[in-house]
Amino acid sequence: MVLVTTLFSLFTVSLCRSIPRSRLSSSPYTHASDLKIHDPTVIEVDGTYYSYSVGEHIVIHEAPHLAGPWKQVGSVLDKDSIIPKGDRAKPWAPTTVEVNGTFYCYYSVSNAGCRDSAIGVATSQLPGPGAWTDHGAVVQSGTGPAADQYPFNEVNAIDPAVLVTEDMGYLIFGSYWSGIWEVPLSQDLVSAGNASRSNAHHLAKHPQAARVQSDGENPDPLCREPSGRHPVEGAYMTYRAPYYYLWLSWGTCCDYDPNNLPPPGEEYSIRVGRSQSPHGPFVDKQGEELTHGGGELIYGSNNDVYAPGGQGVIAGEFRDILYYHYSWLGYSYLGYVDGWPIVLKSTDLGML
Question: Catalytic one among 134, 182, 233, 296?
Fold first, then answer.
């Protein structure tokens, strides 16, 4: 997602208290942690939780529980990313997965508000710091190899997520512009596979917005959305038979002024769609395709938090956990009703 400094990062509760109660909804309790974070990815390895987030060389924290106590233990990279673009020292929005004993940390390099971006990957045999190899770019948009080819000529190549099935790995990515896309990965998962038009799948897009002109607009065409802003990003994909679920961060993120908030419903929220194929089409409960603006609201502003997003899901033996940021790392337990995920008001296993 676009990296910004959040005015509410001091205490989200302070912001919630300043918002009229009519703008907040009652919602399941948010389990809080002691980790202040943006764009988290969290995995659990042998009873220890590892968080990877934006910061110098991709910051790693670890904790015995999602609630904490979290401690910073190092970074993924030991120097700037080898990708020659964007903020190479502080890659954004990482996602880390473990496949057959190897850990893959996919990350973004870009400049805020522009799509001259790339997704890179580093690998290690351990989830902690000190043993990662940076393999460089997997895909690029704006400039660089294949950036002029579909769909990279119309997408912003940041916010990576990865789904690995029995025989294939898929890279899910995108922020604003043309929305969320999926392309195959190579067998070694460190480069793109055949990302031809027939193998690139459009998964989600925010409805077209009105074009807004401003005197201070960036003249660089890679930093302007010709058809207006399309605020959808931070996709994440999971599988729970028989459905694949596409989770989205929807709406305007961050840098909120309590005196000039987005219209209700336009702030960050977490939405989901489902499909029986990882390629889509993904639909919401009403059958609206996510490429046409559909998306089932799963978690939004409430009495605990304002504008949660940057989500991921940890699959558990008995229950799945939805985690997200709202300036701190928060999490909620999931249940499924008629194949649709819901955020539980308790950890009642009977609902799972």
Answer: 233
